[in-house]
Amino acid sequence: MIWLFIAMYQLVAFSEQKDSVDRQRYDVAALGKAITNAESGQRGYLLTGHTLFLDTMEQGRTDTRRVLASLDRRVASVGEVRPELETVKQLVNRKFDAMDISIQVQMRAGSYASHLTLSKDKSRELMKLIDDRLGEMDSKLEHLRADYEKEIRQRVIQAVIGAILLCMLIIGVLLFSYRSTTDLLGKMLETQAVTEQLSHQVDHDLLTGLPNRRSVDEHLESVFQRSKHTSKPFAIFFMDLDGFKQVNDQYGHEIGDALLIEVSHMFQKVLRQTDFLARQGGDEFVLVVGSYMHRMELVQLAQRLIQLFSRPVIVRTMALNIGVSIGVAEYPRHGKQVKQLLHAADKAMYVSKKNGKNSYSFDGE
């Protein structure tokens, strides 16, 4: 009986530890997203000169500090990832210092700032170092989680054996143990449900339920490797909503969030099951299209996506007029690496913006 209770107690303890590790993994993913959002705000300001992008950058900075503080508290019990976290803190400080310098240069240089390259390479190098460290942290936490799962399985086996022995010894003790075992197993299942939910949140956008930027990177790498072996093309659609900021300013973030959810549903209705749609952040979406024969299929798909906004979008009885600017990049025509393709699609999207919005463009065309 003592053996059974010890096994069940350890089962709950390991389940809680695994849950703690999952929360740390979620924070690691959230940290990368916060830094990326700040970088997007900086890039938007450097490209356009609009100070509204600085709000996005500062929000990213605030989120980064909040997540770092959360990680600092939770990592206290996990010595294996402490060195990486300290290094990430230093790199993040250097990253934001470099971003601040580039913003100051933009403010001082004015219209000539777009010709300056100050801190650009340094900022990219710092971001790569941060991503590498975050990847190492996540990898260590993933291994730690696997160890806890192994311990949980062992404790489950021990608990089952203990229950069988207890049943053989005395029926009365079995009845007493059954109630305790049921409660503890219920707690374990509840913890498991929370763990699965957190694992889902790591790879999905909390607002729309679509895959997030982390999932985009993983999916693109998988599609890229498959295309290298099969020589089959694939395409990336980088989509940015036109008029979304005006909706946010006029009706507030609650309506803006409801609009993003509605738009994600509208996109999904015209896509195939093989197409991969994700929310990149803010009002930006990424679509990965594979298994197509001719470019005309991509043109038709872009036209269908644009046609969705030929009439106002109805959100909570309000008719909202928005559009979508689309940039398209094809593998291997517009790049032979994933980062090249993403950059090409992003650049093509800005061409669509400049050409009057609510349109599509292929990179360099």
Overview of this protein structure:
A hairpin with a 2-residue loop joins strand 2 (276-281) and strand 3. The model is unreliable at 112-119 (pLDDT under 50). The protein has helices at 2-48, 52-74, 82-109, 120-169, 171-203, 213-230, 244-251, 253-269, 295-307, 338-354; strands at residues 234-242, 276-281, 284-289, 313-315, 318-320, 323-331, 360-362. The relative contact order is 0.09. It has two domains: 2-201; 213-362, Reverse transcriptase/Diguanylate cyclase domain (Alpha-Beta Plaits, 2-Layer Sandwich). The chain has a five-stranded mixed β-sheet with strand order 2-3-1-6-7, with helices on both faces. It has a two-stranded antiparallel sheet with strand order 4-5. With 365 residues, the protein is an alpha+beta fold.
Secondary structure elements and their pairing?
Layout: H1 2-48, H2 52-74, H3 82-109, H4 120-169, H5 171-203, H6 213-230, E1 234-242, H7 244-251, H8 253-269, E2 276-281, E3 284-289, H9 295-307, E4 313-315, E5 318-320, E6 323-331, H10 338-354, E7 360-362
Parallel strand pairs: 6-7
Antiparallel strand pairs: 1-3, 1-6, 2-3, 4-5
